[in-house]
Amino acid sequence: MTFTEPPWGTTRMGPFVTAEPVPAYTAVIDPETQVAIYIDEQGRRVEMGAHGTSTNTSTPTTTGQGDGQSGQQNQPSDIDSMPANDQDQGTG
Question: Domain locations in the chain?
Fold first, then answer.
């Protein structure tokens, strides 16, 4: 009879930690600001922390033909893009 060693990760497993119940929040739209607000079970407004907005842009990049291509227009031989993600800080 041969013994197969258990995978390393399973030897590190343990029972889950007992978790507290997560309170129920309801998302509603504030009629004045048209922004989502969160209400707890007692009807109080809950602050969800600061978060902002972000924009994604993509700038095309090209590589042209090398030197020695005299008399010909420099046509791109490879085109791709470089994505950028700009984020601002939320105010609350």
Answer: 23-67+74-86
Give the Cα separation of 29 and 15 in Å (integer). 40
Question: Tens of pLDDT along the chain (92 residues)?
Answer: 888 888 888 888 888 888 888 888 999 999 999 989 999 999 999 888 776 666 777 776 666 665 655 555 555 555 566 666 666 655 54
Residue type at 30? D
pTM of the shown model: 0.35
Angle at 36 between CA 30 and CA 39, to 5 degrees: 80
CA dist., res. 30 & res. 36, Å (int): 6
Q: Is residue 61 a contact partner of residue 81, using CB atoms and an 8 Å limit?
A: yes
C-beta atoms surrounding 72 within 10 Å: 8
